[in-house]
Please model this.
Amino acid sequence: MVERFLKQISFSSHEDFVKNYKVVVPDNFNFAYDVVDAYAAEQPQKRAICWTNDKGEHIDFTYARLKELTDKAASYFQSLGIGKGDMVMLILKRRYEWWISLIALHKIGAVAIPATHLLTDKDIIYRCNAADIKAIVCVGNDVIVEHIEKALPKCPTVKHIISVGPEIPDGWDDFHKGLDNAAPFVRPENVNSNSDIMLMYFTSGTTGEPKMVIHDFTYPLGHISTAYIWHHLNDESLHLTVADTGWAKAAWGKIYGQLIAGACLFVYDHEKFTPADMLEMISKYKVTSFCAPPTVFRFMIREDLTKYDLSALKQCSIAGEALNPSVYEQFYKLTGIKMREAFGQTETTALIMTDPWIEPKPGSMGKPCPQYDVDIVDEEGNSVEVGEHGNIVIRTDKGRPVGLFMGYYRNEEKTKEVWHDGRYYTGDVAWRDEDGYYWYVGRNDDVIKSSGYRIGPFEVESAVMTHPAVVECAITGVPDPIRGQVVKATIVLGKEWKDKAGDDLKKEIQDHVKRTTAPYKYPRVVEFVDELPKTISGKIRRKEIRKQDGNDE
Model:
């Protein structure tokens, strides 16, 4: 399959990859027809999804079965009056109905809006009205049902609420009954052009209301590099990405690039993350490729990995937050697998990655993916020298690369803030070493300016995290009359250290950081807390900590 969309599919080196990686974009590309249905026609018994849950259920979906179900769902959606350009929100956790619904919406040219089950009624009201959402497909459980029903009176554009079970509340549509009674699907004449909106994500909203990130129908092709190159997948791969389907990470790791690369998706539908259960699944099903945030690896390392058969596991990748080198080293020591990091956003696919032809440098994001023209620039827009901090940008003066978002829906002002003068500004700060590797510093807003130094929170967090007492840490700047700002560490301690929380431990951590990194970076202020403020996607809200400290500029 991948050979249909790449000019060259085999690369001998990083240089070869950079020079010859070119995505072929067909006219009116539609992932549902050109990938899913194409597989169903050519390899109907090929396994697309291996789904299991924490109740012991297991279903294998072949492409023939996936086509059958997505055709039925597409016909069912059409019977409800859902068609091209209509907005449909999916709150489906890791239920297999997410894949069926998403692909079905692609088949009719509707816009899919994946969303997390953690949304409150206030969040649902905001999203429904901001995007004129026409229908919601969701899991029928008490909490989700309650929030939606509470929100509905204030959501005038919503015409259908569809439950996949277990509960089907009064007045709601039954998804599975709809599929059972669906008429034979007839493909619409003009489903989409490449420039139509296919997918929308609401950003986490660490500052202000969430923005609506829109991607066109070519977006899945942007993820070939994510799966085929970075995850290094092929026809023999069984790939697991740990992500709720409400987040863009699911689009990165749970559908598009992976299926184009020929891999089978492994989905573990669980209510609560338990490292031992996740390891058991990887062992039982012989998962070959695994992608998760560093936090997940950190928890897994604390388990006795020798109890699990991880012999099938060949590739491990990291995304979602920057990787502390200590986690890399520990995992490598225990498994012999070198984790490969990548960097990107909801607005992009993998921008920077540790591709298979370069040696990982623990803590580095890797090198730019050649489908993007990535650079690090100063405030004036000039490329910075080796070792200098600057803004990560994508140059778009020669056109918008495949995988980059279209803009923020209904918010031209916000789009222009980040995308101007032929560049998209990611809002993230990094530096480049002499070998061309990129190193993450932090969000632009998070960089601390102290006594003329620019200090990135991540490098200090990495140093703090190597102390055995520390489970989690957030680094921020607090106002200081002499230095402008000083570094503050807000720390969650391990259980066995909580009774030692005091001045002696603070000093011990400060001295540890001085020894681990440049002394001027050490946290002059240390606070122990029970938990860190986070967004619903699990990202640390440093802004909230700064606000509490009177430093929310």
About this structure: The longest helix spans residues 63-79.
